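Summarise this fold before class:
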Amino acid sequence: MSRPFVFINSAMSADGKISSIDHKQVRISGQEDMARVDALRSDSDAVMVGVGTVLADDPGLRVKSDMLQKLRIEGGKTKNPLRVVADSLARTPPKAKVLGPGCIIAVSQSAPSDRVMNLSKMCKIVRCGSSRVDLHNLMSILYEMGVRRLMVEGGATLNWSLIQSGLVDEIYVYIGGLIIGGTISPTLVDGPGFIGDFPQLNLTDVKPLDTGVLLKWSVIH
C-alpha cells in the first residue's frame, strides 16, 4: 500500500497529560515550540486530527506565519496544507474553524446522510469504512491526492488508532514544565491500549526548548 510518511506531533505535561480532566486545551508550549509546530505544518502536505480534537479545541490547523505561507506559495504549493478530520459519524460542527477550502472530512458509511450533506457544502467528503473510518484506506486516498507528508496533531484516540494500525513513522513530543494531573486526563495515546505487543520506538533527538524538552522518536516497524 502506498501511503504518506506519517508523523505525530504533540505537547504534553511533565506527568504525560495532553489536556485537562475536562478535555480542555492547556497551554503547554512556549513561543519557541509553537514556532516549531508552525514550521512542521508548513513543511507538510496535510495536517490531520480526530473529530474529538475538533469538538474540544476547534483548531484551524492553518500555517500562522505569513513568511511560511509566502514560502509555500513561492514553492508552488497552496498557502496552507490540506486539513483532514477523521470523523466517522460526521460530528464536525458546521461552524468549525477547520472547515472551508482545503478541508477533507473522512467519514464512515454509517455517518448520517443529513450531516454529511451539510458538511459537503463546506469541505470535501471522503467515505471510507463501514462503521469507523478505515485509516489504511484513508492513507491510500490521501496519497492519491498528492499527500506525501502527513502531520497528525491528535487527539489521543486517533494517535492510538494510527499507531495500532502500523501507520505512524515518527513521533515528536514536547514535554512542558508543568503538571496537569487527573486519572482521566487524556495522555499522548489512549484508546484500548496495548497488551504484550508494545510498539517500540527509537529515540533520535533530544533538544531543550522553552521550559521543557523536545523528544523525537522513530517508530520501529
About this structure: The mean pLDDT is 96. The helical segments are 31-42, 51-57, 66-74, 113-120, 135-144, 156-164. The CA atoms of residues 34 and 214 lie 12 Å apart. The domain at 5-220 is CATH 3.40.430.10 (Dihydrofolate Reductase, subunit A).
